[in-house]
Amino acid sequence: MPLASSEFTLPRTGRVLRNRAVLAAMTNKQSEEDGTLSDEEIGWLLRRAEGGFGIVTTAATHVHPGGKSWEGEMGVWGDHQVPRLRELSSGIGERGAVSLAQIFHGGLRAPRSITGQQPISASVNLERGVEEESRGLSDSEVSEMVSSFGEAAERCEKAGFDGVEVHGAHGYLVCQFLGTRTNRRTDRWGGDLDGRSSFLREIIKEVRDRTSEEFLLAIRISPVHEVGVELGESIELARMICEWGVDILHISCWDAFAGAEDGDPRTLTRVFREAIPEGFPLLSTGSIWTEDDAEFVLGEGADLIGVARAGIAHPDWADSLGEGGFEPERAPFTPEHLLEAGLSPVFVDYMRRWKGFVTDGRK
Ligand SMILES: Cc1cc2nc3c(=O)[nH]c(=O)nc-3n(C[C@H](O)[C@H](O)[C@H](O)COP(=O)(O)O)c2cc1C
Predict the structure, then answer these.
(1) Ligand 1 centre distance from Cα of residue 187 (Å)
(2) Beta pairing class for 120-121 and 98-104
(3) Largest CB tally within 10 Å, which of 51, 288, 316, 351?
(4) Is any atom of ligand 1 closer than 6 Å to the C-beta of 175?
């Protein structure tokens, strides 16, 4: 009996998802200069809601103008953004999916050329490819940043979203606080895991305080990241997150089929499933393409499976589950195929940078 097409009930709220397929957050560069959603960005997400995904997540969206990392990035920091956010959330709901906005701040990866200000982070940091050194936030500035996440979540709820996903993965600000390399603070926001995770913990509290009981809260983490995030600590963090009143733990695996680490052939999904409380909703993402892939990851203990690239090329990916044996065509795709799938020329161009995805893109 295929699991991927079966319903799932989120235990804290009783909210029922029509299946296990989640459209993972995908940056697509289609928003307006002031962070407002464009027709193209709304259209591409509504097409995936129509295509059957149980949850549709927006692109990473900055909670403060200073957190914007690239051109065309969606924002949730101002009320001017609400009308179009409402259009998107209601459209997703009308098509039977649950909507999540992925809230984030770029931290050291939010360059002055985009924001007009020096990048900020947990500490003074510089990494390859960034324009300039970040400065470390003061204690009160960290608290203000926590408020920005809370305000953004409140705004998303007002705009009709079912919930938010806090982006704690991939090396952006929350991840920079979690990482030992990027967080060298000696105050309450740094030090051991308890200190380094206090930024995330306070964000969760703030979101909970500012939103209703029904509002969904997912947390996305990287099990391992070069900012100084290591598997052992991520497992410990995952256990802590499960105690903090969130609805979904999302692990970003990139390859959900690989062994967790040298000497441990178990998949990351299996490792996290075994570590967190039984029944706590686990979402796992990374290289899922076919229905068999989805079933494998669910068999490893995920409750929900995240899909990104397959959902770009195949808007009806989720609706195609259920019969068994769904094997959608793989990359590279022609620009015409992607335009047909509801991507704008701007998005197709962005996808040319993803290795092997577009026939005339990066090889
Ligand atoms: C075009 C593109 C944009 C992405 N943007 C984001 C993003 O905004 N936030 C995020 O957490 N992950 C982002 N990711 C990562 C995906 O959510 C996902 O974890 C990754 O692509 C692996 O899943 P896949 O193998 O199904 O593509 C992006 C991936 C792609 C392909």
Answers:
(1) 33
(2) unpaired
(3) 288
(4) no
170 lines ligand 1 (CB under 6 A): yes
**8, 18 Cβ separation under 8 angstroms:** no
Question: Which DSSP letter does residue 212 get?
Answer: -
Other C-beta atoms closer than 10 Å to the C-beta of 14 total 8
> Whole-angstrom Cα distance, residue 82 to residue 79?
5
Ligand 1 pocket, residue 19 CB under 6 Å: no
Q: CATH number for the domain including 30?
A: 3.20.20.70
What residue numbers bound the domain in which 173 lies?
Answer: 8-330
Tracing tokens 């920005």 back to the chain, one arrives at 148
The answer to whether the CB of 17 falls within 8 A of the CB of 55 is yes
**pLDDT, block means (10 residues), the chain with 363 residues:** 94 98 98 98 98 98 98 98 98 99 98 98 95 97 98 98 99 98 98 98 98 98 98 98 98 97 95 98 98 98 98 98 94 98 98 98 94
Confirm whether 351 is domain-assigned: no
Residue 279 confidence (pLDDT):
97
pTM of the shown model? 0.98
Q: What is the pLDDT of residue 1?
A: 72
What letter would DSSP give residue 191? S
Answer yes or no: is 212 within a domain: yes
Index of the ligand 1 atom closest to the CA of residue 288: 26
For ligand 1, atom 10, which residue shows the shortest CA distance? 25
- Give residue 24 CA to ligand 1 midpoint distance, Å: 6
CB of 101 closer than 6 angstroms to any ligand 1 atom = no
In sequence order, what are the beta bridge partners of 101? 164
Structure tokens at 322: 């259920």
d(CA 107, CA 198): 16
Nearest ligand 1 atom, CA 169: 11
Residue 343 lies inside a defined structural domain of this protein: no
Burial 319-347 (b: 16+ CB within 10 A, else e): bbbeeeebeeeebbbebebbeebbbbebb
Assigned domain for 337 exists: no
Mutate to test the pocket of ligand 1, among 222, 309, 358 (most ligand atoms within 8 A of CB): 309
Is residue 254 in contact with ligand 1, taking CB distance under 6 Å? yes
Q: How many domains, in total, are found in the chain?
A: 1
